[in-house]
Every structure is written in C-alpha cells, then in structure tokens.
What does this fold into?
Amino acid sequence: MLRPRRTLARTVALTGAAVLVGVLGLAAPAAAHITVNPPQATIGDYARLDFRVPNESDTASTTQVEVVMPEDAPVASVSLARVPGWTVQVQSEPVDPPLEVHGAQITEAVSRIVWTAASPEVGVQPGEFVDFPVSLGPLPDVDQVVFKSLQTYSDGTVVRWIEVPVPGQDEPATPASVLTLVADGEDSSAPGAAPETGEDASTSAGDDDTAGAGAALGVGVAGLLAGLGGLLLGGLAFIRSRRTEPSGTAGGPTVAAGGATGATGATPPASGESAD
It folds into this structure.
C-alpha cells in the first residue's frame, strides 16, 4: 500500500513544480529598456524627467547614453542635473518657426543630449540602472513626445532604442521612450471613471462606507450573541446530564428502552415530547 501513496505524492510534487515554473515564466518581466519617468506630464508645463537606463549585459558596462529630442515637438528650455562620474554634452539646432516663450522668440532648441561615463568602472554595471535627470518645458501641445536613444556598452555594443510603440500592438523589440502629454486637469491614467451625478460623490461614498460598517457591526454582534447562547445551552445540557447520572456509575444518563424510568427515578417524558 506504500507504493501507490509514494507514487501519488511524487506526481503531486512534480505537478506542483511544473505549475510553479509556468507561473514564474509568465511573471518574468520583458527585457528592460530605457524609459522616461514619470511617463505622463501636462501640456504647457515644465517637467522634471528621469531617463532610466538599465544594463542588459552580463559582462559589459554602459558607458554612453544618447537621447535625441523630437524634431516635430521641440522644447525651448532644457536644463540638466549632474550625474556623478558622468560628463554631459548638449547639442542644439535651429527651429523654424521660432518658439515663443514668455513673449520671447527662441530660434534654437536642444536636439541631442549625450552622457559619457568617465570610465567603464563608473558606468552602469550589469544588474544595475542609473537615472539621468532632465528638466524641460514648456511642453508642446501634442499627444506624446517620443525620445529615441542609443546605449553604448564598454565592449563596443550599441543598442538603438528607436522603434516607436503603436497603441494596440505588441511592444517592439527596441522601443523608444514615450512621454504622454495631457491637458491641464486631465488624467489619462484613470480611464472609465464614473462621472459624478448631482450628488457629491465623496459624501455618497462616505454614507455607503458608514452603512456597510454598521451592517458589519450588526452581523458581528448577532454572531457573538448566538455563540454565547449556544455556550449557555451546552452548559445547561451538561449540568442536566450530570444530574441524571446514576450513583456510582461513570456512564451517561440511564434511560431504559421505551422511555422507562432511569436509576434516578425521573418520570419518563410523555409521548411526542422531547427527552430534554
């Protein structure tokens, strides 16, 4: 009889292991790529963005990162924060027509930003990432801004993150970074939110929460009372059973077949009534 049990246990273990591997496989993230964070900003505002650069190599470090600003959506002002161990070079190009910012005409805009590590040892190491901060604005009146970028490794490998993602399609192998732009007061991260009717939504939600809490409290109290009642009935039944035990015996109450009188001399119950 031991073999079937061992076989069953082994089958269960192997099945569980297969399921775990499948789940882990599904949960494994896609290959990391350069992203812009946060991924959303407001049209017309200035934004502080981080270009997050992960290292996908097992042996080489990332020594150079080049971000190309979009030609079709130029930004008038770009400023950079220092990244320890890295130098930065900014390239600008003429824009036509000029950009008007605070009443001034801007004829040139930043077209390319290049960060270079002082040495491979201070570059982005395998299994690590580095954020490259940028402040820019005013953001143009478009739906999105696409930042194409190049990532250079210490072994000479260059990864071109330049493919533009298309909504509704699978993410490309080497996608560019995309910043979604929304109008002031609009939040595209919360689609399908139910519109408020004439009633204050927060008040309605508060009333619902209060009613739900009251109902839960009522159910809890009823359950507690039912439990106490059951405990009391159980105690009374135990005391009654102890009273009907015959003297000198260790058994329960003695009742003869057909409801005859027990050793305690108790009167048998009338026909149709409960023994209790």
Q: What stands out?
A: The two ends are 47 Å apart (CA to CA).
